[in-house]
Amino acid sequence: MSSGWIDEEYQGIVRTGFRLKRRIMRRRSPFQTVEVVETKGHGRLLLIDGMTMVSERDEFVYHEMIAHVPLFVHPRPRRVLVIGGGDGGTVREVLRHRSVERCVLAEIDPVVVEASRRHIPRTAASLSDPRCEIRIGDGVKFVRETREHFDVVIVDSTEPFGPAKELFGPAFYRDVRRILTDEGIVVSQAGSPFYEIATIRNLRRILRPIFPISDAYLFTNQTYPGGLWAFSFASKGLRPVRDFRAARVARARLPLRWYNSEIHAAAFALPQFLKDELSRR
Amino acid sequence: MSSGWIDEEYQGIVRTGFRLKRRIMRRRSPFQTVEVVETKGHGRLLLIDGMTMVSERDEFVYHEMIAHVPLFVHPRPRRVLVIGGGDGGTVREVLRHRSVERCVLAEIDPVVVEASRRHIPRTAASLSDPRCEIRIGDGVKFVRETREHFDVVIVDSTEPFGPAKELFGPAFYRDVRRILTDEGIVVSQAGSPFYEIATIRNLRRILRPIFPISDAYLFTNQTYPGGLWAFSFASKGLRPVRDFRAARVARARLPLRWYNSEIHAAAFALPQFLKDELSRR
């Protein structure tokens, strides 16, 4: 890293750097290294093992897209489970839906929650909402053992290695199916289709035999390498575009900066190389 | 720049770096500094004044989106003018359309054309097509003085300063309207809505009084800062989505990797912050 910049290197071939103002904290948890820095131009960043998870400037894009797509497809989401997402940004967007009565956050690393609460209130403030329950522990184990059911499960994880590895496996998704209600939906962070197409292809192969509906959608993350980033979408029956009603978005009048009903449908249009790749068996 | 990387710094707050294999050429032309390097992971890059214009790995996204959107809206594009674009990538995509009889490239800087021909044949090979005529000179002057008419004009320029400055002014676009045929369309590189929203807002203000139809569309450029990038679209009457026929794309069977008919429509879905910004007068 050069002086004055904080650089995220990716696959050894590309790096994204942010102008550093000051380092705020850095702590090695049992799972990973958690870091908060202040930048010039992008506000504060939360980094895990050197990868940018949240930038205050553009976190709204990721969090609006991971939350509102499933929550506006489900006709009346009441119970939502977020796995990972200890920064609180996804919970913040989930709780904008008045139908949501309860949002459980299953985060493995308490250091992520503490760091965000202390240094990134923009995302973490939602964690103090009375409808949110924080469960510090392994999300895979939580899903295996809970007797609760959820309308929407959101897998807001890091990349498929380290503590997040099992979140990209079939056993986990069979458990997710079990805890989903009849109209249940699960969406998951699915990596960069441009640089690591294997992640989304593998997720697709895992989801297809478990869920009647599986698809992928895209968004542009300004501060992640390559810009183009994907989520997977799977459900017990609800289709992400056909069963989506734009009128509900209009009625909800949420104060959003990225998501709207046109963006919802557009996000499921996949570039040709990705369509070709995902249609291969 | 650190050793081993070539970094593009943007607005002093963010930078994108590519792992360098070797520097191939660097030349100061009367207009700008033109540079070609070989990277690990992204093939060759063409840089102008330190900004990445073309990466062999992902140039197809930009070039497919700037060319096929207008060429598939126009019912039968025969004559096309490309302003800038001396690397040849846009011309390559234009010439995939069998209806195109003639494509004029008006590039101000012969060094860009020479560097691309010599070092980036993937984009520049199309410049030798007999349907392509290269006019080295000022595109603004060409548009002001030509008596030829075009069905589609593509402004494939650098950012709105240096030699490209006048390409972002009203006088230029009034001349473009004059040389467009009755169903004419003009699209233009319109910057990063995330980092420099003024570029697209100003273009919109210029285009609106000159053309009955004006709009904007988006794509993700993996190697440009911020990922999200915009083109403006303006026409004498053709509407970019309503007058677009997906069946034509299917019939053409072009060997494309990014553009398809779903992507065409989806590209015109704008995020809420940009819709709000562009609807302000």
Describe this structure in words.
The structure is a homodimer of 281-residue chains. The longest helix of chain A has 15 residues, at 59-73. The termini of chain A are far apart. Chain A has a 7-stranded mixed β-sheet, with helices on both faces. A 5-stranded antiparallel β-sheet of chain A has the order 1-2-3-4-5. Helix content of chain A is 31%, strand content 31%. In chain A, 53% of the residues are buried. The first copy, chain A, is an alpha/beta fold and 281 residues long. Chain A contains 10 helices and 12 strands. Chain A has 2 domains: 5-54, Spermidine Synthase, Chain: A, domain 2 (Roll), CATH 2.30.140.10; 59-279, Vaccinia Virus protein VP39 (Rossmann fold), CATH 3.40.50. Strand 2 of chain A pairs antiparallel with strand 2 of chain B, so a sheet runs across the interface.
**What is the first-to-last residue Cα distance of chain A?**
41 Å
Corresponding CATH architecture of the largest domain in chain A: 3-Layer(aba) Sandwich
Number of beta-strand segments of chain A: 12
Label the overall shape of chain A: globular
Instruction: Going across the biggest sheet of chain A, name each strand in turn.
Output: 8-7-6-9-10-12-11
- CATH topology of the largest domain in chain A: the name is Rossmann fold
Biggest beta sheet summary of chain A:
7 strands, mixed
Structural class, from secondary structure content of chain A?
alpha/beta
Give the CATH class of the largest domain in chain A.
Answer: Alpha Beta
Fraction of residues in helix of chain A: 25-40%
Q: What is the arithmetic mean of pLDDT of chain A? A: 94
Question: Which residues of chain A form runs of ≥5 with pLDDT under 50?
Answer: none
The oligomeric state of the chains shown is homodimer
The largest inter-chain interface, given as chain pair and residues per side, is: A-B, 45 and 45 residues
